[in-house]
Amino acid sequence: EWRETKGRQAALVAIHALTGEILAMIGGRDYSTSQLNRATDARRHPGSVFKPFVYAAALSLAESGVKDAITPATLFLDHTRTFESNGETYAPSNFGDWFEGRQLTVRDALVESKNVIAVEILERIGVAQLQLLTDRAGLTGVPPYLSAALGAGEATPLQIAAAYTAFANEGKRVVPDGLRRVTTRVGATIYESTRETRE
After folding, report:
1. Which of 3, 18, 86, 180 is most buried, with most CB under 10 Å away?
2. Mind listing the pLDDT tens digit for each residue in 47-69?
3. What are the φ and ψ backbone dihedral angles of 15, each rounded to 5 degrees?
4. pTM of the prediction?
């Protein structure tokens, strides 16, 4: 109900994955009360939305022929675990502190959004491999920590939506475009957008 959400803000970005056209963008509840466009300017932790990039970075190694690479069928044990990183310990937990206590395939771990397995995959492939992929996807500034696997960096909703176009567009990230065409009052085209992609 409206009273329960009063003062809360949200953002939404919908992009056509093949063309990059921004189909919808909502930057907040009411422009007259807040001019911050949360879709383009609010940098937040993406959280679990970021995990598919960790898995994609790992699977790209298998595609390039790296020995002992992670595949969708690779098994990981879903259990409590403490990681050592940069001289510190890190003990992530799954949602609700629930662990299967058994091995899951990489495919199932992604589907079930298992935090510890995502961190273990990042530990195995290395943050540098993740950063190579995320930089190409338009998500720069991924922190050099294992917590990056769980979305500890910052991104805007527009950056995340644009990066996700690579999953729907055969590995090509489409640059978001808010204008299709600009014409004069007599109909002459003075600007027309072109599709811009990045592998």
Report:
1. 18
2. 999 999 999 999 999 888 888 89
3. -120, 140
4. 0.89
Residue 148 in this model has a pLDDT that exceeds 60: yes
CB burial of residue 199 (10 Å; 0-12, 13-18, 19+): exposed
Q: Report the candidate in 61, 47, 49 with the shortest Cα–Cα distance to residue 163.
A: 49
In whole angstroms, give the CA distance from residue 50 to residue 41.
18
Pair 109, 145: CB distance under 8 Å: no
Q: Which residues of 45-57 are buried (b: 16+ CB within 10 A; e: fewer)?
A: ebeebbbbbbbbb
Q: Is the pLDDT of residue 179 over 70?
A: yes
